Amino acid sequence: MFEYSFMQNACIVALLISLVCPMIGMFLVLRRYSMIGDALSHASLAGVAVGLLIDVNPIISAFCLTSFFGVLIEALRNQFRRYAELVLIIVLSLSVGIAITIISAGLVHTNVESFLFGSILTVSSTDVWSVVILSIISLTTILWLYPQLVMITFDEDGARVAGVRVKLINYIFSILVAATISVSIRIVGILVISSLIALPVATALQLQKGFRRTLQFSVLFSFIDILTGLFVSYWIDAAPGGVTAITSVVLLLFVLLGKQLRLSLGQRQKRKELKA
Asked: How far is it, in rounded angstroms, from Cα 203 to Cα 48?
């Protein structure tokens, strides 16, 4: 399996995705911004369509256009404070409208199915380098802004009082989300990127650990989800995006079941101690 260059490229990209997605997803989930990730993942289709139209690497074009939409969401969010969900509808309508117009008009002569569902066959060496560069930039920025991001996540008003440049960091974070989505397109696919950002974090939260331990477990679960999806999709000849999404949900259910069993055993043990 690993003698094929496309599989080697896919594994490199998958490893980077398993690290970047949960690190961004942790802050999105805790701030209850998961739907922003979903909106931007669908908006990335416009970036892919534009890239194919002007013959630019779709990952780079998706990053550029998704970054624009991420900044637009943050700007509009300040204008629609009481109706924040309207911002997502506006961005979704604009981005998906652009994508559908370009694709349906026949201006793009490349099959976009691999971008929608993910594919291990279409990951080129150019894509790998694009993902590596965007991942390094994302991880470096997260580490640089980590204390400020944690403060904003738990108390945005308190962070503002403490002198943190909340507005600027929110704009930077929007671009980080765009970068995360862009690096995931080739393997996971546009339609299920949001599940990879949110579900490993949701699974790790069930363990009820501290912030750093939850982040570590999120990366571990993301690693399991992506590699399982990659290998299973190779053997059954299916799109890795769908298999990865199913794996994410199954792992979450497994952890929830284990948590419930542990609580039941704990309650049973307490009743035995009370009877004794």
From this structure: 30
